[in-house]
Amino acid sequence: MPLPFFDGVSAPAKVQRASLFALATILFIFFFESSFFPHVQVLKLRNAKAERARTEYYLQWGPFEPMPIPGFVNTGLPGKRSCDALKHNSTVGVQKSFFLNDNVKQIAMSLDAHPVVDYPDDLMRDPNLSVEDVIDRTWTRMSGSSVWLPDQKVYLSVTRIIFCPSQTWSVPRMSFLRGQLFNEDWEHLENYNITWGDKQINFPRVFDIPAQWEVGGTLYGPEDPRVILEEGVEGAEPVVTFNMIGRQSDWKRAIYVFRPFSNHTTILTIRDKERAETEKNWAPFFVPEEEVVPASLASKLHLPLTTTVRKPSEYIHFVYSFKPLHILKCHLRCGDCEIVYAQTLPETFSNKHKEDGGSLRGGTNFVPVPIPESMGLDRKLRVYAAFPRTNIEGHCGGSFYRPEFVILVNIGSHFHLAFASESLDFGTSLVELGPQDDRCHKGRILIPMSIAQWDTTHRQDIMTVTFSIDDATVQVARVQGLLKYILHLPQFKTLFKKDGLLKGEEAEFMNLLSSWAGDDVRGCLVEAALNYTEAQHEITHPKDHKDELDPSNELLRKIYEEEHREEHGQILNQEIKQDEEEGQGNEEEEEKEKEEKEDEKQDKDHDEDKGEGDNKGDPGDEEENRDPGIPDLEHGTLDPDVLRASQKGHDEEKPHEGEQDDKQPEPAQYYKEKQEKEHEMPGEQKHSAHLEPSSHKRHLHHHHYHRGRSRR
């Protein structure tokens, strides 16, 4: 069939035109495959050189050290299996982390005119303190969250800045949000402009967020920022979520969303639900919204009439809680939220786990898992990955935080946890701990902040994650092999297939069972986190060996108790013997002094009766000469509290009439009471009695903050 395109041209020209046409077709398919042919699999040609170059690019920051990720898989069979039966182990790689820094002096100077920023007079008048010293004592930064912006080819990092003139960092006066830009190599971009619409936005900058405050109060301004970008949507604006107190929420801590380029802030409110005293730890993610391509356009492009394309979402979703699993859907402009999924857990299916003192809370954002089309999974399936964190109490004198890796699955209107790991410390990537380092101090607070990027180009599998350590650092670490880890989970081989159990008439029932089994997975995670924290505490705070004895070994325990009593009895007897020797020496000195005085008196008073010289003298003189270090129980010179305790102990030990006293007396009762008295904090009651009264609202703010910190 003759083609007009080739008519009237020579053979070489025909070859040239055919080549150009073929090249144009290949480029068109390559660039517009995801938009116009979302269901068509196109063979991708491997570029070994590009793959090798990308691998070498990441290795310039150092090698990836092996990191095991033990965890628990959702089998879809709830309530009847132990955590050991749900175990799944594999290994990924983790690279040494690096720090993101900022110019705190520059921040302080830019906020010097802010009405809340007022420095203490004692710092400003101290001639020995420089400006840098004052800033160092009143400003700090923490909790950095980052995301890769593919359109601008930069990382956007949002960090919490704290102004604390009291120098008590747990109760700052005001917090601000700082925005920084970094290039692909994580080099800071100073005085860098981003074009958004018709305006230029300069970075770094302190975001203009409408915070409210009252004179003399504390804990104002935005806290705990998380930044997220909707992937696969051209021109999408990042979203920053944070929590803050203000009049709009009746001074309760509420969640807000902020658009950093359009400078729009919205408070989030759950419909038909009273606002909680503290709203924190919501983990954000996006559910893709699609629209059908108009039939006329589809016809012109020779596409199926039912072709859909991605559009920017008007809503953002949150994991509101993990126990039970609740999912929120919030409008980005007006802030209205509704619970779109609420997990119900019947008692008959629940499995009892050791969870007292532990809970799972939001950490990073959830990001979509890039599952290859070649796996043949159900198209309704959406899979998300994140690093939430556990809060464990009761082991280190405060909360102990560690991240975990979890997989969240969404099928239609159902959500469930498909996998949850045990606690992760990322080896030496984030915190280097020596054998003598206290695990309850250094690295106790290890909080995952954001998943900044997941690079799967050129056969890579590198996830970039940001962390905050001990509320003092902003660190970036890379993890290699998480996609491979996920795709080798058992569910992806059977349950999630197009012809798997989640299809057909039993799909609703199987989704319900998976939800219940997901709570088993969560319970195993918390139980493992409790065991991990206890093991970390044991490293630097080992238990007494007798505490580990089996309660049934009664004789062995009694041996330890007898040894303990003998040991303490020897110490007390030594103290008594030492005090008696000191007392005996004092008596000899007193006797010698009395003899000398008697000799002097005999020399002066020849006519006095010599028998009077043998008297012991006036009681008043005896009282003055008595060693004040020995308590006079007879005359009540002993401290009243100790005396009462001593008399009470004596009365309790005194046998009743007609009973034989087989107990050995405790001659060192006073010294025991004295030691206990010395260990009390003097002036503690006085301090508490003279606390300055504060306003009700300020007290409420402190209550909200500390409650929020405990729910971190």
Overall pLDDT metric: 79
**How many angstroms does the end-to-end distance come to?**
73 Å
Number of strands: 30
> At the third CATH level, what is the topology name of one domain?
Tachylectin-2, Chain A
By DSSP (H or I, 4+ residues per run), the number of helices equals 14
| Low-confidence region ranges | 36-43, 606-711
Would you summarize the structure shown here?
The protein is of the alpha+beta class.
Task: Please describe the topology of this protein.
Elements: H1 11-36, H2 48-59, E1 64-73, E2 87-95, E3 98-99, H3 104-110, H4 121-124, H5 131-138, E4 139-149, E5 154-163, E6 174-182, E7 192-196, E8 199-203, E9 205-206, E10 223-228, E11 239-244, E12 254-259, E13 264-267, E14 269-270, E15 283-285, E16 289-292, H6 295-300, E17 308-311, E18 315-322, E19 325-331, E20 336-342, E21 358-361, E22 367-368, E23 381-386, E24 389-392, E25 400-403, E26 406-411, E27 414-421, E28 446-455, E29 462-469, E30 475-480, H7 482-487, H8 507-540, H9 554-604, H10 619-625, H11 640-653, H12 669-678, H13 684-689, H14 696-710
Parallel strand pairs: 14-20
Antiparallel strand pairs: 1-2, 1-27, 2-30, 3-30, 4-5, 5-6, 6-9, 7-8, 10-11, 11-12, 12-13, 15-18, 16-17, 18-19, 19-20, 21-24, 22-23, 23-26, 24-25, 26-27, 28-29, 29-30
Main attributes of the structure:
712 residues; alpha+beta; Tachylectin-2, Chain A; ten-stranded antiparallel sheet; five-stranded mixed sheet; 14 helices; 30 strands; globular; disordered C terminus
